[in-house]
Design goal:
It is built from ten helices and two strands; from the N terminus they run αββααααααααα. It has about 190 residues and is mainly α. Strand 1 and strand 2 form a beta hairpin.
Length: about 190
Amino acid sequence: MQRVVRPQWWHEGTYRCVAMRVHLARHDIGAVFGFLKERGFSWSSVAAATGLGASRVSEIAAGRRIVTDYAVLERIAEGLLIPRHYMGLALDEHAHQYRQRTSIEPAGVVAPLDPRELLGVVASIAVGAIPADVERHLPSSHDVAVPGAVGHDEVATVRAVTAFHRRLDAAAGGGRCLQSARGYVAWAT
């Protein structure tokens, strides 16, 4: 009997008394695989869905390996029907609609930022360094839809992304961290 992933699990489910949304924001793929194991999935069925080997899935679930590669995170999200924005891999549907909206630029707008410069700023922030002129890279408040309230999920996501990039920088260096930060740029804006 083949198991079927239910997309609502990622929004409503918990694993070890922690919401799956938090595990996903932290890129805790071991918890994701453990969650599926509790629902009767075998390592080989998880491997088939994600394109990973069964032994690799087992090692990730046991905590002997961590997933840091953006492409692998994308494959896991796609294979397990995880909404990409839960893992910080894409914009959510509301942000996507906002970005597609056309608007007239207000008078006095400065020339567009160099994408490489913006990536450098994001990478700096991800590893804990705040550039002196960071304000010029931030959106003005009239261009951003500010949420009515910031909840625990949003705070957990910011903390998880920061911790993830700090671990990645410590383990693999700034170049690898920059590669990952590029994946977060669209989501962060």
